[in-house]
Target: Cytochrome P450
Amino acid sequence: MLQVLHCLLLILLFQLCIWFYIYYTKPFDYWKVRKVPFVQPKFPFGSLTDVFITKAHPGKFIGNICNKTKERYFGFYAFNRPYLVVNDPEFIKTILIKDFKYFSNRYFICDDTIDYTNSTGLFAIKNPKWRSLRTKMNPAFSLSKLNLMVPLIKAVNVNLNLFIIKHIEKSVEVKEMCAKYTTDVIASCFFGLSVNSFEIESQFRIAGRRLLSRSFWRSLSVLSYYYAPKLVETFRFRFLESSAVAFLGEVFRNTIEGRRSSKIRRNDFIDILIKLRDEAPQDGDFNFDDSSLVAQAVTFFSSGFESSASTIAFTLHELAVHADIQARLRREVEEVIQEHGGLVYHAINDMSYLHMVISESLRKYPTTSFIHRECVKNYVVPETGLLIEKGTPIVISQYGLHYNNANFPNPEKFDPERFNTTNIHQIKSCTYLPFSDGPRNCIGQMFGLLMVKMGIIEIIRNFEVTTNEMTKEPVILEPFPIIQAKYGLNLTFLSTKAST
Model:
């Protein structure tokens, strides 16, 4: 009798497994029914098995698929959820700009009961709250504000310079060095805090490292926010590491309160937040209370220091590999500074070759893998009649665009001349998207570029950057949603005449 019962239980379990498999894989016909080309899914990870087992970098994985097809768009499945990848620049322009009202949200989990800081921050928040918040935060990133930040960044540059002098002719992992630099710049320019991460292991740098650590669970958590919302809901994953958020939240909250009580004004990000809180406590679309203001501070810090640090580090790597480009850049930096009588804001803007070098670095190493959008109401593609249903996730692959031979010939080559005054006008619209485009582009791109340029200027005018035995070329990327070199970026600095 007991054996019969065991057999029945096994049969029942087998039937449940069959039923679950059929139920789970039923959406795998979604794109086939709509006659949309798609990447064949497999149980249980859909089309992204190599990504979810951390075998492939997500940006490179989707980018390679984009460049193997001539389709305007195609589908794939993350687990059993259908996604639409847009591969055509004109259609990308439609989504990001022309018909933005249909695609105004990022496809990203936004649940303040799971992760209040992330879901309330400008990056993830949904429209119409996003539009209200974005409009009121724009003044923090005006050109006049950028001009005021140059002396503050110069002060951090002094510490960067001293750090490199202490490590002359040694191997330096430059991504970590650059993260210390961008941490200190953002702390000073936007929060009025003096932090020297080069001297001691500051709590700010520790928090920054924790925010986006590369452990398996952190990778799974970050990926899930884009591709596995059910996992976020089930396991209550947080996009940003909770102890780091708690530390940063306390620091920023104390800073806001200190600024209020002292009534000192620096015209920085903190003053903008205080003004938002005092003038619009209940904005209708967005509630400007203390918790939401702290969320903006944490969100901006977490996204700003990491992306800018990566850009500086990868640029230094390419300059070390291409000594001729580095020498030309050094000549421009010295000539322009001499012409302007010092390093001022207008001098930085006049360094055209510097801008070309950084633009090419952002092409080859975009700081994000994808641009995500969510269809917020049913949309019919005019040319094909495809109905994109409300809630459909849209993916635009920056790697797919930036490494497409039709957009950028010989895309693996580091070539700043792609962005000279002649060639830049030949770059097709919406094929180069390091900061996205349209109303929901990166709000901090001008500040990020200023921080990156000033860091590179400080290094190039004072030091020669070279490769060493620990340098890996070409760079191998970590299979992590945020761009990071798998083996670090190890370089050596040598003194130049300018530094003696």
Remarks:
- Strands lie at 73-78, 81-86, 171-173, 370-374, 379-380, 387-388, 393-397, 463-466, 490-495.
